[in-house]
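Q: Could you predict the 3D structure of 3-oxoacid CoA-transferase subunit B?
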Amino acid sequence: MALDKNGIAQRIAKEVKDGYYVNLGIGIPTLVANFVNDDIEVEFQSENGILGMGPFPFEGEEDPDLINAGKQTITALPGASFFDSATSFGMIRGKHVDLTILGAMEVAENGDIANWKIPGKMVKGMGGAMDLVASAENIIVAMMHTNRAGESKLLKRCSLPLTGVGCVTKIVTNLAVLEVTEKGFKLLERAPGVSVEEIQAATEGILIMDGEIPEMKL
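A: Sure. Here are the predicted structure tokens for 3-oxoacid CoA-transferase subunit B:
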């Protein structure tokens, strides 16, 4: 069966290594902090000015003054620090973030990403997305494999305005884990109960399959 948003976040959490500094984008990526193993030390950074972000608070324990870039209430781990946006983007532009996890509306087979605007719809601004994709060297995208109409979001070319060019390294969807290569999307794992044929049918871009494709282990 296909994964839900928590399942996607749980699988991405396995990509987070001990000692990493990690930026979590808006949407599914914010859930990743809930699933990181307790035996590793990770510093989660939010571009609005916090380093040491923890998991979401339990109901009734929210602090309205403590929010992430998506304006969701969060927790702060012991030793967390708070700072202005200039310092935050200095960390990002200075390449001090080891892993960036972002949501996306579309990803192209060459690693292009579109995640900030749909033409005709009003947006408040691009936020930090373009700084993140321009500066990060390790970008994992968390997204649904298809849109609500059942159309693929893993494309030959993005149709929406680009956020970054050739920057995505890996994608985790509700159906699969894929690596972006020079030849296209390389299928690494499939969601439990999801067949290779289902993934192929849901992927517009080139899909590379090498041998037996294992199921994800969450």
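Q: Anything worth pointing out?
A: The chain has four helices and 13 strands.
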